[in-house]
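hey so i finally got around to running the thing on that chain from the lab meeting. sorry it took forever, my laptop kept dying and i had to restart like 3 times. anyway pasting the input first so we r on the same page abt which one it is
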Amino acid sequence: MTISQVARDGGTISYEVHGEGPLVVLSHGMGENRRSFRHLIPLLVRAGYRVATVDVRGHGDSSPHWATYAPAEVGADLLAVVRALGGGPATLVGSSSSGAAVVFAAADAPDLVNGVVQLSPFVAEPKPNPVMRAAQALVLRSPRLFGMFHKTLFPAARPADDAAYRKEMVAKLRGRMDAVRGVVAPVAPHWTARAADVRQPVLVLMGTRDPDFPDPGAEARAARRQFATAEARMIDDSGHYPHADQPEATAAQLVEFLAVTSGA
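ok and heres what got predicted. didnt touch it at all, straight out
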């Protein structure tokens, strides 16, 4: 598959395109890369969609260092990809930290975005205790420790190729941990301040066993309440990455939603 780039102020954003049909843009979470969606892509292509998978700034094959990793800028990167692919409109799917970015993109360019999906979004900034805060600081400075942390986000079952993916992910993070820290650094405005400006349909998807939240269902409902038009659904026996540990169930939910947003 050919890797394409789109120029942005400060570097280039890399992406791949798979299939034909209405456009869906997939944006991964902190520390990952576009291969996070490797199990979801063929299911969406089979359902008749053109799928663009993006390396978030500082990650994967995108330029390594940027002045800012704020979600508004990540959202603008996604819009640049949509424009490079003919202007869409596209449904934007943001995993974890990218769940904030897709909100900014939808609010800023409603003509380019026909729907938004948040996978495991954070409604409020986590407030860990001092011990957990110190542990997180270490994890966000070391690719190897981040890889060990990443493994814990699959409490039910990991994909069969998870070990190989994590090895590749860790290798790609060398010299890029500033981006990992950057995409989750607190910044104003928070995405919840722009959610009311999103008029497109929104779907919130959360794993029932997501270890990042004490009550994943409550977090999903809290995210849903931020929007004018939104629905929250749960993926059974899934952790923080439903598209990786439960790709078939996640694809089923997405295809149902995409039928509405794309008119397919």
